[in-house]
Amino acid sequence: MSSRAETIPRPIRNALAPHDLLCRILYADLVTIGPEWNHPLCNPFWRLYVNDDDGATVSCPAGEIPLPAGRIVLLPAWGRFHGTCIRPLRHFYVHFDPLGFAGEWSKEYLEQPVLLAPNVLRDQTVKQIKATLSSTPMWRLRMQALLLECLAGLLDQLPAEAIDRLNRQIAGFDPVAPALRHIESFLHSRLPIASLAKVCGVSVDHFSRVFRARVGQTPTRYIQERRVAVAAERLITGDDDITRIAADTGFANRYHFTRVFTNLMSVPPATYRRTGRV
């Protein structure tokens, strides 16, 4: 009895379980790209790329990263990337939002595209998903499983310090969580710092200090990024007028939206709509 008991794994406490780590799939497609694929790839969401042949490259401040044939490459959100391609090739891509991976954590530890190590099962899953591209629940579940497996593969390649920081972020109590939820629910409205502090039950000064310590940026900057993130998703997944998108995401007008969007994304909204999908 005692030896059997020792082999039973201890239960994981709910507070430490990564129950909030999941991937929201935004867009996926299999297309042909070529020399015309030459534009910035700064996005508020993540991208997964798998090309059938060599010939495409993603550059970043650290240098150029070739996209080898058949290998999975992840582009973290908010990275300053630029894509080029020297010849026509088939290009599978997925836009996704890994909920639970805070933006500042990604910015600190993931400054360049990540080329995942080869993995027979993962690579075979990519081939199956590409061959059956659809929007059915079954396909989306398989895509979700693949993205989570890719993120696990990414974590395998990171230093222990980064993993420890992510574990503490997931497991710890977040005193600004009520404000984050409030921001998501009311992006279209005015969001004064005083109202966010009130939601958390603390003073404005205390809230601002704690928010910056937990999130890594000021509340104002965070709200701007979330508004731009939602707007960017709508720009490339729908055909709503840019003025409408600006109003729905809390900007004073189209000109204000264009100025903030261009500052964060390096291109105006109209240009992003044309070039930001692939």
How would you describe what is shown here?
By secondary structure, the protein is of the alpha+beta class. The chain has helices at 2-7, 103-109, 120-131, 137-156, 160-171, 177-185, 193-200, 204-215, 219-237, 242-248, 254-265, 269-275; strands spanning 22-33, 39-40, 46-51, 56-60, 63-67, 73-75, 82-85, 89-99, 114-115. It has two domains: 17-166, Sandwich (Jelly Rolls); 177-275, Homeodomain-like (Arc Repressor Mutant, subunit A). The strands form two sheets. Strands 1-8-3-6-9 form a five-stranded antiparallel sheet, with helices on one face. A hairpin with a 2-residue loop joins strand 4 (56-60) and strand 5. Helix 3 runs antiparallel to helix 4 (137-156) and helix 6 (177-185) packs across helix 7. The longest helix is centred in the middle third of the chain and has 20 residues, at 137-156. The termini are far apart.
